[in-house]
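Quick entry, no commentary yet.
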Amino acid sequence: MSETLKHRPVLPEAPVAVSVAGIAIIVTRCLSVLMLANELGYAEIVNFVHRSAQAWDSTFIFIASQLIFLFELRCAFTLMRGSNRGRWGYVGTQVIVLFYMLMASMGWIYPEIFSISGESNAQIIHHTLLQKLPDVVVLMLLFLPVSSRVFFHKR
């Protein structure tokens, strides 16, 4: 075993709230992809990618969603190392995703690849906010506890 690993930790000592938030981001994103793939099956995934590639606007939204997914994972790993940029990057992705989902669900932006259906605008907003509730809890873990704030400000 290397002498480096014996005497000092590889990752900084992150507070429990930061560790839980980082792990929650990674697990929820990866599990959501696995559950979606399981629900759709191979043929529907291929069909979805094919439909997304039919027009430039839907291709752009599809590629942007993949980039946001990867960026969220990167933010999770960096915030567990104490990077304040990772924390604010995650906030930025959540704002972008929420804004797009609300605009697409209400029919103000096309294509509506990632939209939520509802009978009224109030119902759409309610369903969207309920879907984003776990992300709000993660953000609270990153910003509210004093130990989390101190961890990010001492770096």
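second:
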Amino acid sequence: MAYFNLIFLWAIFYGSHTFLANLDFKYWLRSKLGNAYKRYRLVYSLFSTVFFLFILIYGGSIEKSYLLATTDLTTYLGYMFAAFGTIILVKSLKHFSLSTFAGFRAHDDLEEQPEFVRKGAHAYVRHPLYAGLLLIFLGFFFFDPILAALIHLICLIIYLPIGIYFEEKKLIQLYGKRYIQYKKEVPALFPTKFRA
């Protein structure tokens, strides 16, 4: 039952993540909140962070059911994948204002269109945040190869095509032909070239 709860929590998290980032919902919300909408990004970031951490803590509270033997190799792979994932996450955020991204700077993200970034990690993959998170979850599974860690990873893998579809639908609305061209030239998650 605990594993079904874990899957259910991830479904709610990913579903809310997609819904709350939807442009139609944001326009509707701004029409209701007025100037207070400028704090929406901060509330969204706090909600997502707390919910994400709650799911990880809940997963960690489930009695461990090991799927693989823990060895020096699995531990090494865990550290390696998690380190690469973390590096990708950090590099992908390098060209963004963290205060704006997290919502610490009050702003209307429907009026202040973020810069269209194609440099850094975004020159190799369109969604480096997702790629980094995928590697971190993979590393977490190898480091502690339990059923809960595998569920975390599988739920993310199932969500990625859905999340990317809706994210790119929004980005095409924002950037139009520039993003469509970018989509043709740069892969979503796995780089096909290493010199941008």
